[in-house]
Amino acid sequence: MEVPLKKKNYAQKYRKEWESLSEFQTWLKHLPEEVQFRTEHSSVSCIDHLSDLVKSVFPDSKATDDLKIHRTKCTEIIKNVLAPHFVEELLKDIGQQKYSLITSKQLGIVIRYFSRNLKKVVSPFLALEPLKACDAVES
To answer: What are the residues whose beta carbons fall under 8 Å from the beta carbon of 68, sequence distance 6 or more?
Structure first.
């Protein structure tokens, strides 16, 4: 008999001690609750609130006056601007050398190769593909 796993819920909260960590000191600061901006699982749905947040954090900036970005525009920027740029950079870095692809159970695709830029073997995330079936049957 299979027992379903319960998802553990926990409250996320800002911790003052983070401000003393060197990797956070130059950019992390506590904001009032009404202007907090949170995201989960890399979702772009939270982008709908980004314009309002940026305008509240930088009220005197003329650059934010006409800022309007929501899920549709954000998705198109990711698909048509950012993704092609990073794929192009990845292809340049790999060149004609051998590489290997590593997949996980969720078909998260990682590419492993020797980076000419970094002079070491790297394994960056490449893509997350939906699975039609999760078995070993060939189709």
So the answer is: 51
